[in-house]
Amino acid sequence: MYKKILVGYDGSEGSKIALTTAAELAKQIGAQLKAIWIKSKLPHYPETISEISEEQAAADSFLEGLKRDVLEYSLKYGIEIDFFAVAGNPAKVIVSNAKEQNFDLIVLSNQGHSSLWGTSLGHTADRVSEHAHCSVLLVRESE
Amino acid sequence: MLENIWFVAAIWMGLALIASIISIRVGISVALIEILIGVLAGNFLGIHKTTEWINFLAMLGSGVLTFLAGAEIDPTSLKSNIKASFTIGFLSFLLPFIFIWFFAQFVLGWSMQQSQIAGISLSTTSVAVVYAVMIEKGLGSTPLGKMILAACFITDFGTVIALGLLFADFNIWLLVFVVVMSVMLWYMPRWTRFIIVRMGATRVSEPEVKFILFILFFLGGLATTAKSEAVLPAYLVGLVVAGVFLRDKTLVNRMRSIAFAIFTPFYFIKAGLYVSLTDLWAAIVVILVFLVIKMVTKLIGVYPFARTFKMRHKEASYTSLLMATGLTFGTISALFGLNNKIIDQAQYTILVTVVILSAIIPTLIAQRFFQPSEAVMIAWGRLFNGNNKSASPADKKELETEEEKNNV
How far is it, in rounded angstroms, from Cα A34 to Cα A2? Predict the structure, then answer.
């Protein structure tokens, strides 16, 4: 059975359901659980330094909120959930981190904050399931 | 319909909105996307002219942007490696300015003033672009990173001085402008601090923002009366209040928000509007030659001194390439030339295209081939300031290890 589970979490409703599913599963089977947030890269070729520093401050503040969320889930389910943030292309980062850290299950929502762009995270989930070295569990929001 | 000011404003703000959305999506600064949207609007949407009020908002955009560029420098960083940053920054301005000026005048046959505009536009660098490149790898706060940022500031300072003085009328108004500006610059830090402390923290009527804008507009008025350029006082005002702004980030963030929402979209879209794709294609060779000259002259100016200042080949190359970037002041200088009918649209197209390419190409090469590690950039500070002899064995070991890695 699964020993290490990686769940994508961005604070969206969909990702909360994914985190709930992952936490329940991890508790049931005694697996190690890690949550990952893929943050946007800072804008390239800015006109002012404050463009970068403000983006960074906003991202840091958002990250703190996510950390609190994950801690709440950790306390609620009585399991340890590590949390880390990485910048880059979501699908690439998830696939490479899953492989490097030997995860054997990736849990993702079919929709996250990127839904403004259609089913962007859905596309991410597609790409992850296509390229991941391990199993991928796609959690639907309606669940 | 297009005579209705509301519809015209809606079209421009709509273009700015599209640029913002694209910028968020692709992770490229909104300014660059606004310029590109302006290029598309000018070449394909039939938007060829601007109105008085658009020009006014665009002018405010460039003024506030220049002010922010001056205000964002860290005075402590500027002082800490002043010898290295001044030498590198000054040569990074001087060599490209002279080479490009002479190339445009004696090879391309441009007039002297047109060639000087070319020299100024392409001698610039971009503190913000360089900062963004370094911050990605956490290099912005290292001693070498700070030295490079300070050097970029010196280069842009040279550009602003050249733009402010080369085309000015040397008459009584210039004297009045210089005297009044000097007095105001002297008092600006204490005035700004006073207004922030006494009123800024508690008043929603934003007196501190209005105070800064008042000073910028007044000195801009004096500068243009003297046939100088409003970016000169804007940059200098930014510089003298930088220390105050460093402690109070709220004001700088508020000014950036105001500028980016209302002023700079008009400036950047306008900057792109006058780029003619037909002229661009016709002058593609000249554009590439200008880009190569900019990069090579930056290399000639910066690399040897970077080596003298204890940098190895990799860091010296990285520094030279970052000094070859450009964006804000390049477009401001080119647009100044076009607005004042010093250069024509074809020349403007050439200069702005080279400026945009110089924001991208040198940074890509620097990151791909010459990216130093954070440890090395920190070690450089101890090595340089310790004048090598007193550098710790750990620093030397760090550099040696890095050298071995490179050789492998």
Answer: 13
